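Input sequence (175 aa), recorded before submission:
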Amino acid sequence: MEPAVLQDRELVLSALSLQDAAAHLAGEDAELVRWLNGGVGTSVTVEAFIRRSLQHWERGGPILAFGIREDSVLAGTLEIQFEQAGLPEHAVNISYGLYPGFRGRGLASRAVCLACAYAGRLGATTAIIKVEPENLASLAVAVRSGFAEFDRLTEDGGTELVLFQKILGSAEPKQ
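Predicted structure, token format:
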């Protein structure tokens, strides 16, 4: 599968490349580590993540990772995750994170909307966003992107999550 390029005015979602590793590390802060990354990145772990992401693009999934770019500058990342355990058939999980200098300007909401449209074209009928209740910024992104809260759950490790969903319309299942 050829990596997609999604665009909305000056915002572009495109596949990550190894050249993005330094920018990703420079943009990582305590918020990204806490809510998204699961640990502090190193050049080795970030490069491995990017390599896996490129392999997923080659295979057509199940995870499609994008760099969120504003005016060609890496502003954060977004993933569309197909076939995730616990999700209904034809549903995708969307996760996202912006670097500190790019937060608070609506970029995450715009990126999520672009990702939803693309996932729908690939056969997804529902998009899910899972957010810890303390992550107020991410809760706001879900709502601004047209998602509605539909459930709450506690993961095995005790982490509480608010689940949001957005119906993407009727589409053919992903081949």
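Checked by second reader. The beta strands are 5-8, 11-15, 63-70, 73-82, 91-98, 126-131, 148-154, 160-167.
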